[in-house]
Specification:
Blueprint (H helix, E strand, L loop, with lengths): L2 H27 L7 E3 L9 E5 L2 E4 L5 E4 L8 E5 L15 E11 L6 E7 L4 E2 L6 E2 L5 E6 L13 E6 L6 E4 L13 E8 L4 E8 L10 E4 L2 H5 L5 E7 L7 E12 L28 H32 L33
Antiparallel strand pairs: 1-2, 2-5, 3-4, 4-17, 5-16, 6-13, 6-17, 7-10, 7-16, 8-9, 10-11, 11-12, 13-14, 14-15
Length: 352
């Protein structure tokens, strides 16, 4: 009877003094890892996009859903990360890497930065700095800025800019020049395209329902292959509201890296014709050289047809020409005979 309580007491002591400390040590040595939410099957979004920081999927009116990047409270930051890295230099292909991205978003009124589409290396971190960007300074960003920061030379509180490693934009466009207000809460849509052959970055912006603009609001020359070479590059959408309660929402986002064949490298980054969202093709402009070529070709064809017409007419006319018949001339033989004429004298009286 006395051995059973002693065994039970010993087991309790074992758990308290050995097992519990081991569990505590194991828990302390392994950091807590939060698995980010991943978007799958959400209309308008590529599958596999991760939501980091305060970014979260929220229900919208009409049964749909969108991503709220920042909460309506101060010091909120969020990030959407595209699932796969890519490289501007691919050893399997000599063609440079290009990419296209389009996304719809809205920025509520408030004194905060807005959001940015960023390309960054592996060691990039999401932080509470401007646009939620921190860590490696080799990022390339397209900012949609709704706050004027004089320290970095912002032109106003309503502009789009290209950032290289810092927030002093190397190329800027006033969004008011195209009739848009970034922080009005209205849905907007943007297209960001990079051509690896021409090394040209183009940014377009319009209202959500409007078609893709033909002319970009920003066209900037940059060699991203030289910047990152064969390094893995990630892409994301980032935002931070600082001391404001400004909220950022993203309603769709698609990103597509692509290889351009070497035979197409001579094509311009912004060709005269492109397919719009509605499948319409913009007409190409008339080139003077093309018009001159058409005129020369038409003139040559006309001259050739005229020559053939004259040639055929000459053949037909020769068939109906009547030539006089040729009569053979044969030599004729003439005989000359000697004729003796005797003239007699008249007899007197007519008598012999």
């Amino acid at each position: 009877m006395s051995s059973r309580p002693s065994a039970l007491a010993f087991s309790r002591l074992l758990i308290i003094h050995i097992v519990v400390p081991l569990l505590a040590l194991a828990r302390a040595s392994v950091p807590l890892v939060l698995v980010p939410e991943t978007l799958v099957g959400l209309p308008g979004f590529d599958d596999g996009i991760s939501l980091l920081g305060d970014a979260a999927l929220v229900a919208a009116g009409g049964g749909g859903s969108h991503v709220r990047v920042t909460r309506p409270s101060a010091s909120s930051s969020g990030f959407l990360q595209w699932p796969k890295p890519f490289r501007f230099a691919d050893p399997r292909s000599a063609a440079p890497t290009s990419f296209s991205s389009e996304f719809a978003f809205s920025i509520s009124p408030g004194n905060a930065d807005g959001l940015a589409l960023v390309l960054f290396p592996r060691d990039f971190r999401v932080g509470a700095e401007a646009f939620g960007l921190s860590g490696d300074r080799r990022f390339v960003g397209v900012e949609y800025d709704a706050w004027m920061n004089e320290e970095v030379g912002d032109v106003n509180a309503n502009h789009v800019g290209v950032d290289l490693g810092n927030f002093r934009s190397v190329s800027v466009c006033n969004a008011s020049s195209v009739g848009l207000a970034l922080s009005s809460g209205e849905k907007l849509k943007s297209w960001v395209d990079y051509d690896g052959s021409s090394k040209r970055l183009e940014v377009r912006l319009s209202k959500f329902r409007d078609p893709r603009p033909y002319d970009p609001i920003i066209a900037y020359s940059i060699d991203l292959l030289r910047m990152w070479k064969g390094e893995d590059v990630y892409v994301g959408i980032s935002s931070a509201n600082g001391n404001s309660s400004q909220t950022i929402s993203v309603y769709s986002w698609r990103f597509k890296p692509r290889k351009i064949p070497m035979s197409m490298h001579s094509l311009p980054a912004r060709p005269h014709g492109y397919s719009s969202e509605h499948g319409k093709l913009r007409k190409r402009g008339n080139c003077p050289l093309a018009i001159l070529g058409r005129v020369i070709f038409a003139t040559g064809c006309g001259a050739l047809l005229a020559f053939l017409g004259l040639f055929l007419w000459a053949i037909v006319a020769n068939r109906h020409t009547v030539f006089p018949a040729e009569c053979p001339v044969r030599p004729a033989d003439f005989k000359y005979e000697k004729i003796n004429v005797v003239a007699g004298k008249d007899v007197e009286g007519g008598k012999h």
